[in-house]
Structure formats: C-alpha cells, structure tokens
Amino acid sequence: MTKPNPLADFRKFLFVVWKHLNLPDPTPVQYDIAKNIQHGDKRMIVEAFRGVGKSWITSAYVVWLLYMNPQLNILVVSASKTRADDFTTFTLRLINEMPILAHLKPREDQRQSKISFDVGPAKASHAPSVKSVGTKVTDWQRKNVIQLRELNKDRHHFSNYCVVIIRVLFEHAIDLGWLEHNPARGVEKIKSNNPPRRPWPYDLINAYRDMATGRELLLFELLLATGQRIQDVLDMKWTDIRPIDGTVCVDLVQNKTGKSLSIPLRDSLVTLLSNTKRINEHIITNRYGKDKWSYRGAHQAVQAIRKQIGAEEYDIHCLRYSAACDLALAGMDDETIGAVTGQCMATVQHYTKSVRQLANARRAIAAREAMLLENRT
User: Fold this and answer.
1) Alpha-carbon distance 118 to 73, whole Å?
2) What is the signed CA dihedral for 57, 62, 67, 68, rounded to 10 degrees?
3) Could you give the number of structural domains in the chain?
4) 148 is in which domain, residue-wise?
5) Quick one: average pLDDT of 56-84?
6) Pick from 194, 210, 232: which residue ends a domain?
7) What is the pLDDT of residues 300-310, one digit of tens each?
C-alpha cells in the first residue's frame, strides 16, 4: 500500500519552506491563506495587508504545484514586469536551494532564466513550466475585456462581475489621467441560460434549520427574517439591535443602495440572538472571533449544508426572494414589502412575481366571498 505524501497538504509544505528561509513558523493567517489557495475557488483573489507574505506564499504554492505535478504550466502576471520576473527568480531559487526539490532543477537542455524556466521532469513543450509577464492598464483594449469575459463564460455571474469591476477600475484610471477612454465601456454582459432564482421551498427551509447550528443557523435566520443581502447581514453589529416602541429591531444601511432601514425581528430570532454569545462587535464572527465572518467563509458554509439537504438550486440570495414572497403571500403591497427589503417597487415585483398571482388571486377570492356573503344577508 502506497504511503500518503505528508506534503500533499500545502500548509505542511509551507512550513518546510519557511524553515528553509529561516522564518518563524507560519502564522494562523498565513496557514489560512495556504489552505484557501489549495482548496478554494480556482478564480479566487487573496487580499491582505502588506507584509503578510502573499507573494512568498504564492511562490511556495507554485513550487508545491510543480512538486505535486511537474507537467503543469504556470503563468505569472503582474502590472510590473520587474515584479513578475522577481517572482519567477525567487521561485527558481527555492527549487535550486531546497534539497527536497533537487529533482525539479532544470536540466542543461531546458529553459532556465528569470523570465521562464522548466523543471527537470517536465516533458518537451512550447510552454515553459513557469513564465512571467507584465501588463499595464494602458495596454488594455476592448478585445482584452471581451477575452476575459469569454474565458469565464461557463460561470456567467463571475464573468459579468469581471466586466463590471474592470469597467469601474478603468473609469478610475481615467480620473487619474492614466487613460483617455474606457475599453470596457459598452462590453455587454453574458446572458444567462440558468433558470431564474426562486424562493426557498418551506420543506428545505425546515431541513436547513434541522441541519444547521451556530453561526450557520444564525446567518440563515437573519437573512430570511430581514430579506437583506448577505454582506449587509454579515456587517450587522450588536449595537444595531435595539427596541423601538416595544419591538426589537435591527438598524442597517444597505451597502449597495445606501438606504437606512429599521426592521422588526420575529420573536424566535430575538430568542436565538439572546442565546448567542457576544465575542465581538459583529453578531456573526469568523472562527477566531476576531472579526466579522467573511463572505467567502459564509458562502462555503451555507453551500455545504445546501448540498447535504439537496438545496443546490437555492442559493443564499434566494432567501431574499423568500422574504419578499412571504410578505406578498401575506397580502402586503409592493411599497410595504420594499419597506423591509429596501427595494424599489419594480424590483419587488421582479422578486415576487413567482407568487404574486397567487396572492392576488387569494385577495380576489376573499373579496368575492365577502361580497356574496353580504348579498345573502
């Protein structure tokens, strides 16, 4: 039986690299970054303060990838060609200096420079094992934005998000005087062939409640009760909870719209909050209790439970649909629903269209029955 490689866990490999570099043991944050770049989304972005070691961790990760699979081809891209080349040089030095990586050293007949290099076991290929390139904001053209969109078209939400973010960044570049026009302006988003979002079915809501505990349950209940976006809920602090005329409410300012809302909370949620230990100013914290729970961490935790209960078709944002639809079924008009969700009337109508017909039909039948009863008397 083949013995498992202990360095198959990138965190353990990172520890070995840190020892070679005579650095202290990796910090919890560095280990967390290492875990996420190994197991997280392949299109993730790592954001951290300067000095946390993002570049060094990533260099170690590139070496680890080649250690696990020498046939990979890795492209290093930076806004600065010098930074990209420095990254490649540092990566190659790790391979040349660390004994456990001796088998990866480039052979004499392979590429070996600060721009690109091959690792020893790599088969002949037009592409090197590692290559560095630099690109500047002034080099971007409309075709490059379209190429980026098309590269990610299998995930249309992410693809469209890229277009939006790049458009905003280029507008900022224009404000700074770096560009005269925005190459992303006018680039259309990809239309989705996915079915429209729907509110969570009640049986799956109950299944989630039966499965979830702790912050996973608290997040779910706050989303469902308030009808807010996930980031607005993750931003909630204990000081945002206060009684108004005898009713416990949560105050918030929506990140996207800037609207200020005060939303009454149902008694069961108030009880859940009362039983939740306050370890930070934020109501829902990360696992260390040091800060609010990240969007990524919350998304992954909820997604894991959705898979267990067979609710893959209903994501976190569908709970916002659920809140709006529940209010519509209760007979509330669009303006009243918007007072809770913070949406304009057109958006409320979009979110509630799956149940609005039934709600209207119920009111119509009730009015008709009342009229018939009055005529009988």
Assistant:
1) 9
2) 100
3) 3
4) 137-194
5) 86
6) 194
7) 999 999 999 99
Nearest to 88 by CA among 144, 140, 130: 130
Do residues 207 and 266 both lie within one domain? Answer: yes
The residue type at 192:
S
Q: Find out whether 69 and 91 touch, Cβ atoms under 8 Å.
A: no
Output the pTM of the full model: 0.59
Q: Could you tell me if 207 and 349 lie in one domain? A: yes
Percent of the chain with pLDDT over 90: 49
Provide the pLDDT confidence category of residue 377 given band limits of 50, 70 and 90: low
Q: What span, in angstroms and rounded, lies between the C-alpha atoms of 112 and 131?
A: 10
Is the pLDDT assigned to residue 255 strictly greater than 70?
Answer: yes
In a domain, 371, yes or no: no
Residue 16 has pLDDT above 90, yes or no: yes
User: Is there a single domain that holds both residue 182 and residue 211?
Assistant: no
Q: What average pLDDT does the segment 339-364 reach?
A: 88
Tokens, residue 334: 């669009």
CATH number, domain with residue 252: 1.10.443.10
- DSSP conformation letters of 153-170: TTSHHHHHHHHHHHHHHH
H or E element: which one contains 250? strand 247-253
Residue 43: its pLDDT value, please? 64
The reply to whether 71 and 216 lie within a common domain is: no
User: CB-based burial of residue 297 (10 Å sphere; 0-12 exposed, 13-18 middle, 19+ buried)?
Assistant: middle
What are 198's two structure tokens? Answer: 């729907």
One domain, residues 161 and 221: no
